[in-house]
Amino acid sequence: MVDSKPLTDNVLGIPNQNIAVQDQNLVVRDYSLIVGQEFADVETCRRVLKEIAIALHFDLRIVKSDRSRFIAKCSKEGCPWRVHVAKCPGVPTFSIRTLHGEHTCEGVRNLHHQQASVGWVARSVEARLRDNPQYKPKEILQDIQEQHGVAVSYMQAWRGKERSMAAVHGTFEDGYRLLPAYCDQIKKTNPGSIASVFTTGQENCFQRLFVSFHALIHGFINACRPLLEVDRAHLKGKYLGTLLCASAVDADDALFPLAIAVVDAETDENWMWFLSELRKLLLMNTENMPRLTILSDRQKGIVDAVETHFPTAFHGFCLRYVSENFRDEFKNAKLVNIFWNAVYALTAAEFEAKVAEMVDISQDVIQWFHRYPPRLWAVAYFEGVRYGHFTLGVTELLYNWALEGHELPIVQMVEHMRNQLTAWFNSRRNTGITWTSILVPSAEKLVLEAMADYHCYQVLRANEVEFEIVSSERTNIVDIHSRSCSCRRWQIYGIPCAHAAAALISCGQNAHMFAEHCFTVASYCETYSQLIHPIPDRILWKDEALGGGAKADIIVHPPKTRRPPGRPKKKVLRMESFKRPKRVVQCGRCHLLGHSQKKCPMQV
Questions:
Q1: CA angle in degrees (0–180, nearest 5) for 534-409-401
Q2: Contact at 8 Å (CB) between 14 and 32?
Q3: Helix/strand/coil for 18
Q4: SMART domains, alphabetically (predicted)?
Q5: Nearest partner of 59 among 15, 103, 11, judged by Cα
Q6: Which residues contact 462 (CB under 8 A, 6 or more apart)?
Q7: Can you say whether residue 548 is alpha, beta or left, with left for phi > 0 and alpha for psi between -120 and 50 degrees?
Q8: Which residues contact 173 (CB under 8 A, 6 or more apart)?
Q9: Among 332, 392, 324, which residue's Cα sits nearest to residue 364?
Q10: Of 4 and 155, which is predicted with more confidence?
Q11: Please, what is the end-to-end C-alpha distance for the chain in angstroms?
């Protein structure tokens, strides 16, 4: 069949002066076809014609497709549109030989299109998914309808996303196979780092992954306070799993993850392993193991692991976990408010007074205290030093990491965490350089607040280091040598209290110099002094992992666990749940809630 139209006419009837070979990675924007137009191969030709059919709203029917030719026509009976593409002699390209470029049919009159296949959806969203793995199927089908005027089903959008994610990031199975090579790359590019993968069974199914970068180890041991938060988040990817983390806190109270792990499931055995690896990490990098304070929700697996591997550590409850349990059990706003006052009471006498108030409201409080001993959470009785850090900030971090990474293969998920850590190091290192004070801003603010109240006290000096601080409420004893005050705030928070500030100012000392070293700008800068070096692109080491390299004999297979069918249940963690509940003011005169004694309407 010979085309009756001139060679310069195209499917839209617009003259086209240029004939070019269509690239394999083509995104079709000019929906024109001309006789003589070339394509890199038959697959590219098929893809271009599908794009044109979708854009111009007509159905394409493939008449013939083999190694040497491709023939297609409009699917509507009687419509003359037809194209014949054949292989060019001696070269791999294909060119249009004949073209009937006019349609006499009305085209596709609804939003559904036969050519809008899963493969087409995958190609359409690939660029967006590269930047945003959280691109949801619901958003995909909405965007496709808006941009292309085509309706696809939710399942098509979901499968298209899965196929595109595999093309961009690799499959979940590839992620597990790449783990040994990835661990080698971490240790090669970041000397002193720890990266280990463990398998189980004869099939070498994935069981555990432990990663800690040298920059994190150095920062924790040399500059952070000896405090660790331990928590986990459940992954909802294809093979499920659990993300574990031990995080420190830097001088300015920002999270500083020390070690992360991915395990096949949250079990007592995996917690025991994780704390064992954490202990090895510390023993390898310091001669004097610090006496740690560890915060967690104290579930059995964590408690047993801490007692086994850190027997001298002080292991306390996260106050948010304790308070939520108390609130859910008693459901009494006044009782919860008194409970918080008891939590933050600095002395045993203050604590017991608040407990007596709670018992007056409900005798059941006594039984609750037996289940949750105050020595594990109350500021007045907890023996470890928490430096004013009482809740698990790492919970929110892990939740975000799990949310952002569950769509990615395991290697890409860990890389996402490494990239975020690198960005944090860069930003915080640059921020620290700009500070000119002795203490970081958060500690500086506390010291200035303490110094502002020094004139409220009468200072009596007993000797070179001991002071008696007298106020209208009570008398406190300050020892500037041992850095202690009888109110206990200095010891608990590591920053001079108002009584200590009054004593220091009276003898001409700089109160800033008496804060713990971990709150200094020098300590902050040391925390982020090391670099987290980049990992080469996986193209440079993938072949070694999949065959022919030193680790070729270790092929890590996915774990046996699989995500069950259906939509997973979501546990929404609201931002307000990560904060202490707003304090309810109670009047000291009439004992009603909602106002203070100064504003009490009761007549004196």
A1: 70
A2: yes
A3: coil
A4: ZnF_PMZ
A5: 103
A6: 468
A7: left
A8: 557, 558
A9: 332
A10: 155
A11: 108
